[in-house]
Amino acid sequence: MISEQLIDELARIVGREDVFASRRDLLVYEYDSTPDLFEPEVVVFPANAVEASEIMRLAKREGIAVVPRGAGTNVSGGSLALRGGIVMGASRMTKVMEVDTADERVVVEPGVINLELQNLLAPLGYLYAPDPSSQKVSTLGGNIGENSGGPHCLKYGVTTNHVYGLEVVLPSGEIVNTGGLCEDNPGYDLTGLIVGSEGTFGFVSSMALRLMRNPEQIKTMVAIFDTLEDSSNAVTDIIAAGIIPATLEIMDKLITWAVENSYHSGYPLDAEGVLIIEVDGVKEGQERQSQQIVEICKKNHVREVKVAKSNEERNLLWAGRKGAFGAVARVAPMYSVQDGAVPRTRLSETMKRVVQIAEKNRVKIGNVAHAGDGNLHPLIMYNPKDQEEVERVHAAGKQILELCVEMGGTLTGEHGIGLEKQAAMPLLFGEAELENMARVKKAFDPNNMLNPDKILPVKQAAVGVGV
Amino acid sequence: MTLATQGLEATRTRLAEIAGEANVLTGEQAASYAALREPPVAVVFPADENQVAEIARLANAERIPLILWGGGTKQGIEPVQPRDGIVLNTSRLSATLELDAANLTVTVGSGRVVDDLQNELATVKLFLPLDPVDSARSTIGGMLATNSSGPNRLLYRTARDWVLGLRVVTPFGEAVRAGGKTVKDVAGYDLKKLYMGSWGTLGAITAATFRLLPLPETQATVVMSFPMLSNACTTVSALLGSFMRPSTAELISSGLLPAATEQGFHLQAGEYLLAISVEGAAEAVERQKAELQELGKKNGAKELFTLEGADEAQLWQERKALSTGTSADGPTMVVKGSVLLKRVFDFTSGLVGLQGVKSTFASHAGNGIVYGLISAEPGQEEKLVSAAEQLQRLAAGCGGFALIQHAPRSIVGKLKLWPPRTDYGIMREIKAQLDPNNVWNPARIPGGSL
Amino acid sequence: MSTATSGDGKQLSTLAEMVEKCNRCGFCQAGCPTYKASGLEWQVARGRVALVRDIIDGRADLLEDEIREALGSCLRCGGCTTHCPPQVETAQIIDKAMEELVRLKGEAWVSKVIFRNVLPNSGMLNSAGKLIWFAQATGLQLAAKSLGLTKVMGENAHKAQDTLPKIPSMTARQMLPSMMRPVPNRKYRVAYFIGCGTNLVFPELAAATVRVLYANNTEVLIPEVVDCGKPPMVYGDTEAARTLARKNIDALYGMDVDAIVSDCATCGSFLKEYPKLMAEDPLYVDKAKAVAAKMKDVSEFLAGIEFNTEMGEVKTKVTYHDPCHLVRFQKVSAQPRKLLKSIPGLEFKEAEEADMCCGGAGSFFLTHYELSQQVLSRKMGNVAKTGADYLATGCPGCMMQLGSGLKKHDVPMQLIHTMQLLDKAYAAR
Q1: What is the value of ipTM here, to two decimals?
Q2: Cβ A28–C42 below 8 Å, yes or no?
């Protein structure tokens, strides 16, 4: 329990109205978007780096953990106050400080919501490439913490490829600037190190992000196949033909059925595999490229290829895909999203094996994947009240992770390790590798107080894998 | 940091045991690997990461300074260098460990020469979208460790955007991986980013896995000459704000390219060349070629040339050859400025206006990166020192910084090699954790010696 | 251990089922106006639902002030559910929780008087309306004192004076009879349900609605109805709501009309919910269904018939605010736009977040003044960006809030109801 004195001290730093320690307050900050609950001792919202720095110093002095929080929509347990302590939220830091399209850069505070930035840029003819499915709620600070991706990272990369520099409050309370407004900064790439560090290296208080001009033209196509295998073979062939689309998404029959029933986007209810393909860039050449893609799909026994003829049609097709989780939520009492990544050439096989895992564990799984980069999101549907089924879901989740590693892939493509996959880290990394990471953590946080005991396995039993 | 415990001979013997007698150079032969340092006591050529690991363990135990050597093109210019170090040459770590063309990935040893890899990739119609200017000599490992890039970073960015995984030997002598083979990977910390640009201070990169692209269908370069630097810079701004997706925008001052080339473009003294490349689908390239002609004319270009095929290749060869930074005429300094895009004009005009020295530059104008070649009369090295100070002040005023990449030994001690930053402290913490005995490239301390 | 776990087990078990659907994805943050205002987790559906879950599990007490504050500060706008993958019905969950609260705590006697005595009595309500008009001339003090309004509506009543517009001296019911007339070439006949907002505060809207219906060859009947019942429902007094509903059903059931129309989104949506409200009353449930089946928002009615497109020109730029009770509760949003866009000379400009709640939410602007203003402020920002001349909408409740917002934020725009714009167009022939 945190003392009244400390609460008063925190109130002096951020203002009384931005310190929350009542029963009710703590109850609503004990969760993120995972099933586990860990109650913090106090929740504070600093207005800027200086306040965040003072909070860190206080925490360091008192030996209390600090857990950064954006929207709290983390799906791997990264925002959970595992060791109690102070939850430091970014909700007051919501300013877009600078928009410079000529220099292709924005400077923003961590509490800005991804979609809000996109909406601000769109009328200017620019975009911020990382567009995770959570973009309407996830914050840019949260995106930094998880190195978020999205459907367009096949061509444009993930968050770490779009950050020029950060202002970070270190666990010592020191405020440093990593990277910069220009490129090729001397010294170590601390920006690259902090992106994806899941809030365990520092509290990001400001970010300089890279903008891109809107492509001149975007062509969106939907290809409908009668087998999942045909659709993933088409993916392989498209890439092999030297075409790098901006996006290549796969949905299987279960997902497409749920999506169509919810949104009526124009998908057939009985398609075993649906591909969403987008090419973008300079107008010239796209017609031929689309034709090539259609030919390749035909070679793979495609049933039909639809090309979106207007922005409205395009949006409807995407609404279907981006609403996949939602649609599934309507047909199942509860669902759990997995997140594995394998080399693209092994995706087809991996999805087949996922289906086998589903059968073996008698759980229902739908497959949706960023096929272009081998990042799959099996959606396991289940009834949370059925304890026995929950066990089988856990087992299936663990087996999927093992499968991804077996296929030469990784434990997580986008969602992070957090708590959820902590115990699985030894599947991928040996002792030496984990120790190497631990050394870097030690450099940032010698007292292990910033979002402690996440990512790297600890001696205590970690939370279960998967669900 | 001595060989006191073991002695010189014992060390050499141990190295020979690890890598084989034939793969250890000493004495005179080792001296040619001195670069700007004292000659190393030995140069060793390990064959694989296990040997690298053993060498690392030896160096760590004996506190022997270890210097990595790839193509030797960027050995650094820190004024205080260690004595009695070992140079670890990576040239035998050059095999292609896996080429998965269907997956668009390649895993290759860090000692592979960049151009060599590109040639192999071309046989399966792929390429690595990185073109550091010394690609004919520089190794993959060297390119990554020094964060080297080239003109096509305008479209393809830099190494950190193409590396999927690394194999590294840590100062503790462990062979570890960072990342893997997938495009998406957020498992654990992104240590690849730490090792890239670490200049050999945190261990050795022994192999890298890259994401590749299919070779573009076609390409072309439009070359424009400008009497006025301001017009050239305006053209670049207009280019960046247009629909076009160029792969390069090189702005080069006269006096750098071979005389014959400049004559071919009718480039007078005091004028500037802007070379813009486009690549991709044939229709897109055609359209952009035409648009670039319009763009140049509208912005005061004196003459325009479209280069394709062999002519185009030759120009880019010559551009690459500008990197050497040595001149027979007198002491030379290479300064790398990185400034805001909208300030490229201010920086470049300030650079060419420096007094008392001769200055030319080649720049990735669409990235704000300017390589200035500054030379002084023989015996006038001091002028270079003040030129460096001025350029650093100018770069700071243009929102960025200027690094000295090359300078005569006699003045290195008078130069500020590191711009002011707030994060040197944490960098040193990381170094202290990963290389507690300060064995690896000990001269290179983030921020410079205290 | 909270007393909420004892008592009506059925209520709690329904609630439990509803809250269990929440998987804490947090997507509700995208559509919640109070979250956008404060950034606090207990002011978004996910947090409120979590607290209800905690109440059910005995970890929190519904009677605690701050729990009540968290739940009561929900606008019931339904914005959360739009983004919710499993479609958790947070507005309903909060309604049920408030109902439970009333059951446990009892209602402030003043609100009981208003909900159970004043509202069902149209005469008394008219008098209350007149009283408010009079009190406005003298600064709301008399009414506040005589009805104990400050007690039931919190400290902020005096601050909220600026939201209550000038109340006209004549109600719509008093004014309309003089303009009613038979309709030759009649194509339709409707019963016009005049809500309290239209009746007391915007009688000119009623006149416009009637004229628009006449212009569409529609005969208008005006039944004797009372308050629709939504206010007591929101405060948890379901019994009072049912009493009101029965009176209305008695008045409406069996009328020989093609539709029952309303120009108030809230009334229309609540009447459509009468079947659910009366589900336990065997005497009224079927009649409720019949009434609900005929209930239509007036824009819904007009867009559904071949409405009269012979209009004069109204050269102006218009943007539209979707009342929550139209866009989400009745799924009516295309119809008002269709009608507006059919007006010659009218340029329609869609506002950002047009369907986000204005913060009025019935009497929310009185009980939660600060929060209501923060939500309104966001709406004003969005609306101002369109540069429109008129801000159109379909609910008197919204009209009060938006009208005060336009003034307070100096937005050079006039507030208007969709029917009033149509009225102008028909008049310009």
Answers
A1: 0.95
A2: yes
